[in-house]
Design brief:
Radius of gyration: 41 Å
Low-confidence stretches: 1-26, 48-95, 116-150, 702-708, 1115-1126
Membrane topology: Multi-pass membrane protein
Catalytic activity: Ca(2+)(in) + ATP + H2O = Ca(2+)(out) + ADP + phosphate + H(+)
Number of strands: 28
Largest sheet: 9 strands, mixed
Function: This magnesium-dependent enzyme catalyzes the hydrolysis of ATP coupled with the translocation of calcium from the cytosol out of the cell or into organelles. Catalyzes the hydrolysis of ATP coupled with the transport of calcium.
Shape: elongated
Strand content: 5-15%
Subcellular location: Membrane
Keywords: Acetylation, ATP-binding, Calcium, Calcium transport, Calmodulin-binding, Ion transport, Magnesium, Membrane, Metal-binding, Nucleotide-binding, Translocase, Transmembrane, Transmembrane helix, Transport
Mean pLDDT: 78
Helix content: 40-55%
Distance between the termini: 126 Å
Length: about 1150
């Protein structure tokens, strides 16, 4: 496949004329003119040559080849007739005047040339030379940048799309299979496409971007309209409309609009603030969802393997696929081994599909690689794929209801029912008082005088009473609870992104706060995943010096085969001669680097000398990979295995020495086992290499075609053992200890052998130094073979499980959940998906994690660091704690407002707070209060508490203690002001009502500080760090001053003097010492509401005992009467 690159090299000088177009407005017309002129000029020149001298066209062509520095064309090379391709590519250049210059020059010369045909036939050669001179001058024009023509395809997008979607193998063969499609797309299967921005942009412009159309997030207007659907809001608007109408009719436009207009303004303010908050949070969730879909893909560009975003892949890209990857676009299989695809997301079929180059080379976007590895040629992207069309039709609903939100909905409904009951009682009482003539207007006159009362006044009074009752319901229903959850979840998600954790499912934020056990991987999570070969054993000796000097050449050759051809990694050697770039997993990169730098391995030479016959890919169950290769020179076949040292050792019967001799393993096996144990005890990951030479008959192949799917796994010869060091991450000890203090147990589940596992667990603090182990460390096979009863008995003691399979991890999660634990599990492999789904919280790894693992998880740990897992635990507890703070704050307001309004309505026939004032309190409580309390950062105190159980009540005894104390204080103060305020302050009723309103609002402001901590006595600790909280409190106070001092008619308030303001502030400030004193009162662990259930139980038991006693007395009385009767 060198043709396409010859095209690259050949077209570069030609296309220098096609760049750099800057300001022309009719570029296509100019381009068309240039094409037509050049084509006609060339045809005309040829025609002259045929008529006068057949060699003339050869002269022109040869001179052009020489000038443009290209060779005469083969089938894959550029012909002169192909010159139009230089203009077809003119779309993104920057100096369009140069094309105009080309057109003018061509036309001028064409005219001159046609004149020369007749009168000067014998001077054709000089004309031809003049033509080539003009072309040469154009080509050599300064400041023109070459554009490769590789992006000019010989195939249309529709054909490609339909061929892959329909799996049309006949159509593919008509193109010449995958190679023919690659040629049509101007792609080199060995070197990829050009990686410069210009060609990538051209391919994206021609074939589309790898994105799909998603519905935009709902706008602010949608949320405003949605808020109007609330039945209570509609009732308030109707009341406002009626009040406005009656007011205007009774008092005229200038004075009559105040009450109704004020209600309208207050309702709209509540709606807009709530709608804006919801709009902002939806935008935040939408932004985070984009990050979830931004998958990284390995592609081949400019001969280099590089990682790009899935959104940047283009048609013609050669992409690499490994186990667990998502297929990034529609494409065709180039090469690979044992590639099995899970297409269930596209077809619904659970069976895996085998992909090969002959029978089924088609790959569909969105499917997952279940096993194997390979390369694919991208043929369709974005909306040209079935996956893109399907995803664009799916509306992603951001209104996901989490378990905590569901519980809060129930709580809101219960509180709302209480509020509705109180509002109905207030409505009935006020109606009775109004129609019995017990209410007076502002002038002290009785409002209702029977038939003497104006009908308009009656309607106005009724509307006022209904509006007051409805407003009590508005204040009573805690709409702010769902908003508080949304706010705190959105805030937490945003902050967790900064702390390297991306939340995929909202419920995980809450559930993580209740986690009791975290099952974590070792590699990359507890360790840094920066592997390096630090130990090498060949035979019974450790190779310390330069291995290439100490080891026999035949053994070196076998190592080259076993490392270079049995790998999923790749090596790129820069032309500059600098160090090679190695790609792959950390383990593969470490081994390849060791082989290249230490053993002098040349991968390109290996690929030229050997043919790969069959590959068995590595997975976490087998813990080894194998390859069968055939030497192209002598046709010998070698089987190479690489994997966990003790497993490879068990497959061997002999071993190599450094001298190149082989020995039997029978007597030395124990020594090798000791070597492996010693390396593992030093925290090294042990990888062994083994091989065996077999015949074609043993391989089961004929004429290079395999018929057997299994490689030989016994009688192998051990080549050597390497030890890879992976240091623990900094800070992992502190994170493990923090989790332990928080009552969360850490269990390490790893595929490494038991000695490595114990060493790493001790180093990380999971196991204690010199601690006598008693069932705390097990191997996967041992745990698997326990009976159900033994597993349930021992599962809580286990801290380390070594040599575990994904099934063992799943089994442990199931056992722990049965024991009542809330389990979080980390995973990175495809086979970890079942355990991630089974766990209460699935934590996948962002760097090493496969796409299958990420899609099965709830949270993605972006840096693969266990410290980030501990951070997620802190944030989970913070979410739950913030919600509880807000519940305590809001219920205090609810209880106080309901009791005050009910008592005032029953006793005085009116409520102290108007509709507008109650709506203002509702705004402070629901929106600003939620925003202030829902954005608290996690504190260290949260990690000193035990996990919250699944069934623990939302409102704890501590919360009941705090809220009842504050509510009783507010009720007593405000009722005192209601009945005695006028005499105490010697003021009017209107001023007294303003003092009540002002004091009530300021009490909530001061109580916000108390709500910052439910248990700590110092509620001001760390307050300077939460600038948002201070800002909201400041805004609330400023708005309250405006309400009282400047919005007299809107808020039905009167201006207060300095003394009255001081009294209001002093009364409200008493909330602080009350909150401090109350926290000295101890509370029972038994939920408060259980005490309310106890009288019912006692009553039922008492009644049961009474009934039993009556029944026994009746029987006794009957017996007596029978006895004494004569």
């Amino acid at each position: 496949m060198t043709g396409s690159h010859d095209v690259h090299n050949g077209c570069d000088p030609l296309l220098t004329i096609a760049t750099a177009i800057t300001r022309a407005h009719k570029r296509w017309r100019i381009a068309y003119l240039a094409i037509s002129s050049i084509r006609f000029m060339i045809i005309l020149t040829k025609e002259i040559g045929r008529k006068r001298n057949k060699d003339n066209s050869s002269i022109l062509k040869a001179h052009l080849y020489t000038t443009l520095d290209i060779e005469p064309c083969s089938s894959n090379h550029v012909e002169i007739e192909h010159v139009p391709c230089l203009a077809t590519a003119i779309t993104r250049a920057q100096k369009r005047w140069r094309i105009a210059y080309l057109a003018i020059s061509s036309i001028r010369f064409m005219i001159i040339l046609t004149k020369e045909i007749g009168p000067k036939r014998n001077k054709n050669n000089s004309s031809i030379l003049k033509a080539q001179t003009i072309l040469t001058e154009i080509v050599k024009a300064k400041d023109i940048i070459a554009i490769p023509c590789s992006f000019v395809p010989n195939i249309d997008q529709t054909t490609l799309t339909e061929m892959v979607k329909e799996r049309d193998i006949v159509a593919l063969r008509s193109f010449g299979s995958v190679g023919g499609v690659a040629t049509a797309l101007k792609t080199s299967l060995e070197n990829g496409i050009h990686g410069h921005d210009q060609e990538v942009s051209q391919r994206r412009a021609m074939f589309g971007a790898n994105t799909y159309h998603k519905p935009p997030p709902k706008g602010l207007l949608f949320h405003v309209v949605d808020a109007f659907k609330d039945a209570i809001i509609l009732i308030l608007l109707v009341c406002a409309a009626l009040s406005l109408g009656f007011g205007i009719k009774q008092h005229g436009v200038q004075e009559g609009w105040y009450e109704g207009g004020s209600i309208f303004a207050a309702v709209f303010l509540v709606i807009v603030v709530s709608a804006f908050s919801n709009f902002r949070q939806e935008r935040q969730f939408h932004k985070l969802s984009k990050l979830t879909n931004n998958i990284k893909v390995d592609v081949l560009r400019d001969t280099r393997r590089q990682e790009i975003s899935i959104f940047n892949i283009v048609v013609g890209d050669v992409a690499f696929l490994n186990t667990g990857d998502q297929v990034p676009a529609d494409g065709l299989f180039i090469d690979g081994h044992s590639l099995m695809i899970d297409e269930s997301s596209m077809t619904g079929e659970s069976d895996h599909v085998e992909v090969d180059s002959t029978e089924n080379p088609f790959l569909l976007s969105g499917s997952k690689v279940a096993d194997g590895h390979g390369r694919m040629l991208t043929t369709s992207v974005g909306m040209n794929t079935a996956w893109g069309n399907m995803m664009s039709s799916i509306s992603h609903d951001t209104n996901e209801r989490t378990p905590l939100q569901a519980r809060l909905d129930t709580l809101s409904t219960s509180i709302g029912k209480v509020g509705l009951t109180v509002a109905l009682l207030v409505l009935v009482v006020m109606f009775i008082r109004y129609f019995t003539g017990n209410t007076k207007d502002k002038n002290g006159r009785t409002e209702y005088l029977g038939s003497k009362t104006n009908l308009d006044n009656v309607f106005n009074g009724v509307v006022r009473i209904v509006a007051t009752a409805v407003t009590i319901v508005v204040v009573a229903i805690p709409e702010g609870l769902p908003l508080a959850v949304t706010l705190t979840l959105a805030y937490s998600m945003k902050r967790m992104m900064v702390d390297q954790a991306m939340v995929r499912k909202l419920s995980a934020c809450e559930t993580m706060g209740s986690a009791t056990i975290i099952c974590t991987d070792k590699t990359g999570t507890l360790t840094m995943n920066q592997m390096k070969v630090t130990k090498f054993w060949l035979g019974e000796e450790s190779i310390e010096e330069d291995p290439s000097i100490e080891i026999a050449p035949n053994v070196i050759t076998l190592f080259h085969q076993g490392v270079g051809l049995n790998t999923t990694g790749t090596i790129y050697k820069p032309v500059s001669g600098s160090d090679p770039e190695i790609f792959g997993s950390p383990t593969e990169k470490a081994i390849l680097s060791w082989a290249v730098l230490g053993l002098g391995m040349d991968v390109e030479k290996l690929k030229q000398d050997y043919t790969v016959l069959h590959v068995e890919t590595f997975n976490s169950t087998k813990k080894r990979s194998g390859v069968a290769i055939k030497n192209k020179v002598d046709n010998t076949i070698h089987v190479h295995w690489k994997g966990a040292a003790e497993l490879i050792l068990a497959m061997c019967s002999s071993f190599y020495e450094s001298s190149g001799n082989t020995k039997s393993l029978d007597e030395a096996r124990n020594k090798f086992e000791k070597i492996i144990e010693g390396m593992a005890a030093s925290s090294l990951r042990c990888i062994a290499f083994a091989y065996k030479q077999i015949s074609e008959k043993e391989m089961g192949c004929h004429d290079d075609e395999r018929t057997s799917q299994r490689l030989k796994e016994n009688g192998l010869t051990l080549l050597g053992i390497v030890g890879l060091k992976d240091p623990c991450r900094p800070g992992v000890n502190e994170a493990v200890e923090a989790c332990r203090v928080a009552g969360v147990e850490i269990k390490m589940i790893t595929g490494d052998n038991v000695f490595t596992a114990k060493a790493i667990a001790t180093e990380c603090g999971i196991l204690k130094q010199n601690h006598q182990l008693n069932g705390e460390v097990v191997e996967g096979v041992e745990f698997r073979n326990y009976t159900d009863e033994e597993r349930m008995e021992k599962v809580e003691k286990i801290r380390v499980m070594a040599r575990s399979s994904p099934f063992d991890k799943l089994l442990m999660v199931q056992c722990l959940k049965k024991k009542g634990h809330v389990v979080a599990v980390t995973g990175d492999g495809t086979n970890d998906a079942p355990a991630l789904k089974e766990a209460d919280i699935g934590l996948s790894m962002g760097i090493q994690g496969t796409e299958v693992a990420k899609e099965s998880s709830d949270i993605v740990i972006l840096d693969d660091n266990f410290t980030s897992v501990a951070t997620v635990l802190r944030w989970g507890r913070c979410v739950y704690n913030n919600i509880q703070k807000f519940i305590q704050f809001q219920l205090t307001v609810n209880v106080a407002a309901l009791v005050i309004n009910f008592i005032a309505a029953v006793s005085a026939g009116e409520v102290p707070l108007t509709t507008v004032q109650l709506l203002w309190v509702n705004l402070i409580m629901d929106t600003l209060g939620a925003l202030a309390l829902a954005t608290e950062r996690p504190t260290d105190e949260l990690m000193h508490k035990l996990p919250v159980g699944r069934t623990e009540p939302l409102i704890t005894n501590i919360m009941w203690r705090n809220l009842l104390a504050q509510a009783l204080f507010q009720i007593s103060v405000l009722l005192t002001l209601q009945f005695k305020g006028e005499s105490i302050f010697n003021t009017t009723k209107e001023v007294n009502n303003t003092i009540i309103f002002n004091t009530f609002v300021l009490c909530q402001v001061f109580n916000e500080f108390n709500s910052r901590s439910m248990e700590k006595k110092n509620v001001f600790k760390g307050i300077h760090k939460n600038q948002l909280f201070l800002g909201i409190v400041g805004i609330t106070i400023i708005l309250q001053i405006v309400m009282v001092e400047f919005l007299k008619k809107f808020a039905s308030t009167e201006k207060l003097n300095g003394l009255q303001w001081g009294v209001c502030i002093a009364i409200a400030a008493v909330s602080w010492p009350i909150g401090w004193i109350v926290k000295f009162i101890p509370v029972s662990d038994k939920p408060f509401l259980n005490y309310l259930k106890r009288p019912k139980v006692v009553f039922r038991r008492t009644m049961g005992l009474i009934n039993q006693k009556q029944a026994s007395s009746s029987r006794f009385g009957i017996g007596c009467r029978r006895t004494v009767r004569p």
